[in-house]
Fold this sequence. Notes:
The complex is a heterotrimer. Chain A is an alpha+beta fold. Chain A is 30% helix and 54% strand. The longest helix of chain A has 28 residues, at 116-143. In chain B, the strands form 4 sheets. Chain B has a 5-stranded antiparallel sheet with strand order 4-5-10-6-7. Chain B has a 4-stranded antiparallel sheet with strand order 11-12-13-14, with helices on both faces. A 3-stranded parallel sheet of chain B has the order 1-3-2, with helices on one face. The longest helix of chain B has 22 residues, at 265-286. Helices cover 34% and strands 27% of the residues of chain B. Chains in contact: A-B, A-C, B-C. Chain B binds chain C through residues 1-2, 4-5, 39, 43-44, 103, 186, 189-191, 193, 261-264, 267, 270-271, 274, and chain C through 38, 116-117, 120-121, 124, 277-279, 638-639, 641, 678-679, 683, 691-692, 694-700, 702, 705, 761-763, 766, 770.
Amino acid sequence: MRIEGQFEFEGISSEAVWDFLTDANRIAQCLPGCEKLEKTGEGTYEMQMKIGVGAISGSFSGGIRLHNLQPISQYEMTVNGTGAPGFVKGEGKVQLSPKDSGTLLQYSGDVSAGGAIASVGQRMIGGAARMVIDQFFKCVAGKL
Amino acid sequence: MIAQNFEYTVATSLAEAVNLLQKHGGRAKILAGGHSLIPMMKLRLATPEALIDIGRIPELSYVRQDGDMVCIGALATHHVVETSGVVMRHCQALADGAGLIGDIQVRNKGTIGGSIAHADPAADYPASILAFDATIVTLGPKGERLIPASKFFVDMLTTALEANEIVREIQIPVQSGKTGSAYLKMAQKASGFAICGAAAVVELDGSGAMAKVAIGITGVGNRAFRATEAEKALKGQKPTTDLLKRACEKASSGVIALEDIHASADYRLDLARIFARRAVEAAIERA
Amino acid sequence: MPQRYVGLAMKRKEDPRLVSGTSTYVDDVVLPGMLHMVVVRSIHGHARIKRIDTSRAQKFPGVVAVVTGEEVAAHCGPVPCAASIPKMKNAQRQLLAVGKVRFVGEPIAAVVATDKYVARDAADLIAIDYEPLPAVVNPEKAMEPDSPRLYDEFSDNIAFNFGFESGNTEEAFKKADVIVKERFVNQRLAPLSMEPRGVVATYQMPDNELVVWASTQVPHLLRTQLAVMLNVPENRTRVIAPEVGGGFGAKIDVYAEDGLVGYLAKKTGRPVKWIEGRGENIAATIHGRDQIDDVELALKNDGTILGMRVKAIADLGAFYSLFTPMIPTLTGLLAPGCYKVPALKFALVGVLTNKMATDAYRGAGRPEATYMIERIMDVAAQKLKMDPAEIRRKNFPQPNEFPFQTSGGVVYDSANYEAALDRALELADYKGLRRKQAELRSQGKYMGIGLSSYVEICAMGPSAAMPGGGWETGSVRIERTGKVTILTGASPHGQGQETTFAQIAADEFGLEPDDIVTIHGDTARIPSGIGTFGSRATAVGGTAMYFAVQDLKEKMKKIAAHLLETTPDKIEFGVGKLVVKGDSGRSMSFIDVVDVAYNAVKLPPGLEPGLDATRFFEPSNFTFPFGTHVCVVEIDAETGEPKITKYVAVDDCGNIINPLLVEGQVHGGLVQGIAQALHEEVVYDENGQLLTGTLMDYAVPRAHDFPEFELDRTITPSPVNPLGVKGVGEAGTIGSTPAVVNAVVDALAPFGISHIDMPLRSEKIWKILKGRKAS
Lengths: 144, 287, 775
């Protein structure tokens, strides 16, 4: 499923946003339900998350990979997680551009799922992904 | 279709249920009618360590008029809401919505409190709850709290309920004057949930103009919302076919719509415009 | 003797036990020491299995055994396929995946434990390491040479090619005044019986004896297949089909779980039960349809059909189930529908994709044929500006032309298509509807009228056309008390043969239906049989039973003639007695004749004692029921939502044993056929993930989706069997789907629309309403 959206970091410079979003420890602080995020190589991280959307929740283990980094303007990200309810996978591009005195972040990508998550949750996957992404960026803005 | 092991406790009062929730520290769920929670548990998408059954607390299933307020207990079933004389008299849209939920078996078990606490993006009630400016009364460790409907539905499956808080009652102000309300929906063919549902509450003044218009829309976005721009365009105006059509074109402005195998985002946005207008027309008809 | 019960709308003998909940289904079978099986299934559409770690599950308290692919493949045969097409690739699969998984829901491991909760928890402890592979879900893409391949050992995903030409299509298309063409897609459907599948097996080591309770339509076929699969002697294998809560074709198949339960009963020495969950039912019970048909029709300006060309693509899914490759070939047999199509070219390609296998689902190959011919007839009528009723009428063979050899290669037994069409038009007030339509159109309202004149293939069938045989057996035994026991090889699961067979036998013997009991679904009690599918239980099974009844009547006549001192040809059956023709004073009661047969003292010389007969009936042909349906829809001009406001069905299924049951079958069939047109669809995403995995997303039709059906019938007896019956199990499904789509397309005619693909979701219609101006 294709998802795209944007988030405005008011009064925060692109450098600050970039630094945050490419720092594993700081990402972990804002990733909802993140229980572990470890750097395993250049731009690759292993993680454990407990993702919950309302009553629905599951523990996932997987990884994040940041690639094609073009400092402070854009990077690509691959996220995958596997757990008892199935697996989720996301691939997308994040672009930063200055806007007024702050930063406009635009993201676009594909979210796919497998197992029970896909066969039961098709109607909510897009919305849930947007919700988690939004929570994440709000948290980032808060920390900055 | 077999749930994970869980503890099961029957609470005899809401206060006890709140205590039990605290004891389990966020790993317990409240069981009311069970029509959303149990299927998710059987699919192992929800794996609470304990269920606290409030279904047997007798004094929570009621509908009554208390002064200028219609008060609905959290455990009132959809069938109770659908057939309540008080609801039909003062908040017909809510009864319309209750009657369109699932089938008769579901309506006999499912509860209004459970439904709104679950906050399914396609549930029927939230449209009316928003349009009536209802208040959600909750009970938590710190006591009772009144949450306005506009603050209650936060996001997909997410409400303003704190951890360890339980819905106790829904309060709907008795509408004054020449008021009518209606809820209409297009049901998704498999689940019966709303692809789009719209509730409208309209008060007409002596001249026949719309003194008050409220439109709630569900099924379209991550959460139900008020069609504020459409409301503004209608308020104070005399209803004409042309005005209703033009005003309701704005019913889904700025909304990021859900998209799934049953309906695209564009279709949902257009249905919001169509159903908003039809709901307003039906509400005027009833005023 | 006059018919007293045949033709009567009797309530079903089966219903009291069904509506009172006292009936026994597989899940009601509980045996001492019984274990429960849970199956671990693939969450990928296509993946290599790198490693399976069952150690944690093995150690879980209460777990008795955990098995995976290699072990089971070493002891059990693969999932069987009985159908064969020349040069087809052999896409068989093992009971549990070995090396690779090819569809979401494919069984990978099985756990048996002391209860199902333990088994389910242990299943979560099995760790499977997958290497996901690109999936192919679109059959046309799967056919491309560079498409990912499902089977490493095959050169491509094309399972087979099949085709024929009768008459000269090239010439027909050259001579044509008009050629119309369209692509029709039959979406993938889930059969979705109310009772999912279920199996219980118990195995006795000393005798090598296997007893299986299964929710099946074909107990005898299942017995043979299980005996071979599990290497148990067939005469030591017993299959019992207790009450079966619907099948719709999906319970003809022999499934991996059937074999697994048997194998695990053997392995553990304890009874094992498996009951399918609804999610498993949607993912791993066979699907139906999934066929693309590119159809061209050549006509003269006056609407006369000259020829037809069909290029069909059947999406078979990931492997062959019992009849998978055969089902789409039936589409070719029925391609001409109820019309004279002098030249026909049919080319079918079967394709393997990363989805569950398709197989027989109510109608099985014939709905696809009916849909394409009935749709293309409307497309032709639109192009020629003819009334849809008139173009149909123009091309019907006349009643005196039957038996009618078609270009599809079959011989239609008997019909009067025009009579059914006329009756349907009259009942619907077709002329009035057209007037109303014109009126509404002028007001900007869109109402559509859809016709479907169908013929279908029933009473399956001659053995030459049926893998495994097309005969059926009937045994009739008159007990010493005069009660009659019928044993049928058919295995009814909702069709009501306990009632209709009693009606037939009661009239033949001059008894009451209550005196007659029909036993089915147990290979230890029924000597031989095929089963119930393809609308065959009465037309084939009933005929076998009828012949056995005739054998006993002849024998009873001999006994009565001997004692009444006349010849058997002078004896006839009256109510409760055997009478000398033309001399009603000379008679013997039925029970007295039975007495003589069993006491065996006063029997005519040379006649064996007892009253027990078994017959095999091999039909000489299929039967071909037909009819015309009329559907009226109204379209919400804003949302596009279609609503059926009227539905008329005139069906001809030959002679009728019980009109109540015929109507019940038609109602159920209509609902399933209309639901295909409007709602139902199994959806996989491009990775082979099943998106309609629950009833929250797979739309089961509900009563409030339908208007009251207006039914009537014509009666054209079949010459193929002495009962003159044709079968009615699938007619409603086959006839209705195109009627609905024709109605919606007709409603949208002002928008210049010639076709919309199923299911007719409101959004598809909304797009048309939004995108174009009405003329």
